[in-house]
């Protein structure tokens, strides 16, 4: 598991950002969507270790808004969580950032529908289809990913918490996980929307990486 990266998403409180950054996750995610209870509205992001990549999460935003936020917060990755087109992803990629395109998975998923995105994103992220774009706290059946046919690496998301550690370890023993480079967590570690429990995340990280495979 030592090669699997960790993304902690939905951060917005300055002291909590600093506290969680001491855990040295690979990515911290900041949601720029006004309808979200985790909407990021700070003027700046507190200083965090340079090893942690800052991810801005957007839902059907204008390119101009993304440019503005990338510059304001020095975002290194843009995560697109809406109905963004292939051409839209191509234009975001031109901004000089990495691009994550999210697709939500229900009882089944046809991976041929995302083929055209492969050339214009750096990663996919698969989460659970729910009422909101992310943060729904429920998992999908990871066996569906066995049908993933592309070389493009992906993030696994959707309701991942401490109780999923054994399932995650089992998943990473399968061929389906070969292109999975990161685990994305959010709502299952909150004491309130956007406020993450350092204690719970520390325990999760220890469990995730102990007895490395």
UniProtKB/TrEMBL annotation:
Residue span(s) of domain N-(5'phosphoribosyl) anthranilate isomerase (PRAI): 7-204
Catalytic activity from the UniProt record: N-(5-phospho-beta-D-ribosyl)anthranilate = 1-(2-carboxyphenylamino)-1-deoxy-D-ribulose 5-phosphate
Upper taxonomic lineage: Bacteria, Pseudomonadati, Bacteroidota, Flavobacteriia, Flavobacteriales
Pfam families recorded: PRAI
Keyword Amino-acid biosynthesis listed: yes
Pathway named in the protein's UniProt entry: Amino-acid biosynthesis; L-tryptophan biosynthesis; L-tryptophan from chorismate: step 3/5
Gene3D superfamilies: Aldolase class I (3.20.20.70)
EC number: 5.3.1.24
Protein name: N-(5'-phosphoribosyl)anthranilate isomerase
InterPro entries per UniProt: Aldolase_TIM, PRAI_dom, RibuloseP-bd_barrel, TrpF_fam
The organism's place on the tree of life at top rank: Bacteria
GO molecular function annotation: isomerase activity
